[in-house]
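Incident log, support desk, overnight shift.

02:14 A customer reports that sequence design results differ from what the structure should imply. Their input is reproduced verbatim below. On-call engineer (initials T.W.) acknowledged and began investigating.
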């Protein structure tokens, strides 16, 4: 499932990306262009704007009333039944490999695995010494590694469900 978030939902867009969902977000986009992209790319529009959902041409959308990004995330997950998605399975025995941290949280591009040597000059020395697996965004160059974030995110997801 692919999403596009309106300008009020930047933090939600980031969380959905961290969960591996293709989520577009443009902080300064006109409503008509937002709807056109949603329609042309078969994306679900996530919005808090009641005026926006009344515009012609909008087919698939979710109007969110929650203020808190985790409340918004919970609403998206429950509305589209994403809780049964492989991303929430913590065991490879179930035949599913989580997509957690498979997309860049900044620009939405799929991340690529890079060698430890490639990451050496781009990550803190402690991280380089203590981590073996690294990913990089081929578009913006941001580096990712397994630290405490994946477990904290899983804990937060367990807390909201």
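02:41 Re-run completed on a clean worker. Output:
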């Amino acid at each position: 499932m692919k999403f596009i978030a309106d300008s009020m939902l930047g933090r939600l867009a980031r969380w959905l990306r961290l969960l591996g969902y293709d989520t577009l977000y443009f902080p300064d986009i006109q409503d008509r262009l937002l709807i056109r992209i949603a329609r042309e790319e078969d994306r679900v529009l996530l919005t808090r704007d009641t005026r926006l959902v009344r515009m012609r041409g909008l087919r698939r959308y979710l109007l969110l009333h929650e203020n808190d990004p985790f409340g918004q995330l919970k609403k998206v997950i429950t509305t589209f039944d994403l809780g049964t998605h492989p991303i929430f399975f913590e065991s490879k025995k179930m035949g599913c490999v989580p997509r957690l941290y498979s997309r860049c949280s900044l620009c939405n591009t799929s991340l690529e695995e890079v060698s430890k040597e490639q990451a050496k000059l781009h990550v803190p020395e402690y991280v380089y010494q203590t981590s073996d697996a690294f990913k990089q965004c081929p578009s913006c160059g941001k580096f990712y590694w397994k630290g405490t974030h994946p477990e904290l995110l899983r804990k937060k997801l367990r807390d909201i469900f």
